[in-house]
Amino acid sequence: MQIIWSSKEMQDTAEQLRSGGKRIGVVPTMGFLHQGHLSLIGLARRESDVVVTTIFVNPAQFGEGEDFERYPRNFDRDRELAEGAGTDILFAPDAMEMYPEGHATFVNVEGVSTTLEGAFRPGHFMGVATIVLKLLNITKPHVAVFGQKDAQQVFVVQKMVTDLNLDVRIHVAPIVREEDGLALSSRNVYLQPDERPRATALYRSLRHAETQIHDGERSVVKLKKEMFDIIAQAGPVQVDYIAFLEPSRFRETASVEPPSLLITLAARYGTTRLIDNILIPVS
Ligand code: AMP
Q1: Cβ(120)–Cβ(266) below 8 Å
Q2: CA pair distance 11, 263, nearest whole angstrom
Q3: Candidates 150, 153, 156, 180: which one to mutate for ligand 1, based on the most atoms within 8 Å of Cβ?
Q4: pLDDT tens across 120-165, in order?
Q5: What pLDDT does 1 receive?
Q6: What is 186-276's CATH number, 3.40.50.40, 1.10.760.10, 3.30.1120.10, 3.30.1300.10?
Q7: Are 127 and 41 in contact (CB under 8 A)?
Q8: Closest ligand 1 atom to 145 CA
Q9: Extended beta strands in 5-87, E state
Q10: Measured distance CA(18)–CA(12) in Å, rounded
Q11: β-bridge mates for residue 28, sequence order
Q12: What is the arithmetic mean of pLDDT over 232-243?
């Protein structure tokens, strides 16, 4: 596995690969890799000749008072995991490489960037869209793999790709979970021993809604209340939101309509903020 720190070197390498007829797949990450990230690398492996994994903890997508400084980092471990999962090139720039003095251009995907995660984390999606566009321009991939775990991020990225005519295919990978249902996240290491079991209520609540909808329940108000109760009954928690969305528009809906429904949620256990979601077919 080759490690590249410089954007220019990465761009030149990508250009050479493309002129040699190679298909490039990229997996953007913030590092502290887990099985969720590795599944994305595996998917990229199957769809391309050369897999580029990027590791960059992007300051622009963290708000003031968020966890940028304490975000977990372990480059040596990441390097081994990325290579083991099939990465050919690890692109790991530092902040000065991505945002040199005077950097002044940001990408804003209007509308969707200010709801839900965007409402709780103002500026977050501008940081995401900007870094994703930069990483796409630097790694020149044919396919870029993102996780359904960050459902709103996927929507923002897909919208940017469409609106800005970017010549890349976005592949969305399913959520990888612990055995007890907790979605894998680099932030799970923040959970205190008493919070960790409580956090399993998030996925339980999503599965409850899924079962109820499958059995014919159509009341969004009732389902939201039941989900909230499941999460609250597990112990102290701050639920930021539980949202029922039309997946194709990422708009909140007051009714459960075919062909599918996306339920997203965010909750805080102490200082740890977790997100999760489920896509439910509706007939
Ligand atoms: P992050 O390092 O948290 O920015 O995540 C990098 C990529 O991995 C994003 O596309 C995430 O959606 C994806 N990802 C994070 N957690 C999971 C998971 N549990 N299952 C699948 N993909 C994930």
Answers
A1: yes
A2: 38
A3: 150
A4: 999 999 999 999 999 999 999 999 999 999 999 999 999 999 999 9
A5: 98
A6: 3.30.1300.10
A7: no
A8: 10
A9: 24-29, 50-55
A10: 10
A11: 54
A12: 98
Q: How is the chain split into domains, by residue range? A: 2-173, 186-276
8 Å CB contact between 50 and 76 = no
CA 150–ligand 1 middle distance (angstroms):
7
Q: Give the architecture (CATH level 2) of 2-173.
A: 3-Layer(aba) Sandwich (3.40)
Per-residue tokens: 94: 């530092």
- Which pairs from 211-214 meet CB under 8 Å and 24+ separation? 213/256, 213/261, 213/280, 213/282, 214/280
Using a 6 Å cutoff on CB, does residue 157 contact ligand 1?
no
Residue 156 amino acid letter: V
What pLDDT band is residue 273 in, cutting at 50, 70 and 90? Answer: very high
